[in-house]
Design goal:
This protein has seven helices and three strands; from the N terminus they run H-H-E-H-H-E-E-H-H-H. The protein is mainly alpha-helical. The protein has a three-stranded antiparallel beta sheet. It is globular and about 60 Å long.
Length: 130
């Protein structure tokens, strides 16, 4: 019996090649927003309240809260109550900083190619957000 390959997968490529990559794709997708990266970068300095992040980033409280919720759902940040506020911090600071440092090294090697990419580059992101 012949099975049809899933959409987007070449019929001659074993599915083993993509098996198990969904969590990695989800991780990179969670890091794909400049605001979320800025939040993570600022949290690498220590824990902060939403109001502090809002002031530092110059963004609306609702925007920062939405991105923090995404990062919390992905397991990258956690919060603890402090009075009526919540203090946010990175769950795995060292590993996240290692990953971001590796990304910086890769970007230094590829130059502007990623940002100029017609599918995922800056121009495409602006089109989808406007």
């Amino acid at each position: 019996m012949s099975m049809k390959a899933p959409e987007g997968v070449a019929p001659d490529v074993p599915q083993v090649e993509t098996a198990g990559l969904s969590p990695a794709a989800s991780l990179f997708h969670s890091l794909s927003d400049p605001t979320r990266l800025a939040i993570l970068r600022h949290l690498s300095l220590g824990e902060h309240r939403v109001v502090e992040l809002t002031k530092h980033l110059g963004l609306a409280q609702s925007t920062v809260s939405k991105h923090l919720a995404c990062l919390r759902d992905c397991g990258l940040v956690e919060s603890r109550p402090q009075g009526r506020a919540s203090m946010f911090s990175l769950t795995t600071r060292d590993e996240l900083l290692e990953l971001l440092a590796a990304a910086e090294r890769l970007l230094a090697l590829t130059g502007d190619a990623v940002d100029l990419c017609p599918t995922y580059g800056a121009e495409r992101r602006e089109e989808t957000h406007n």
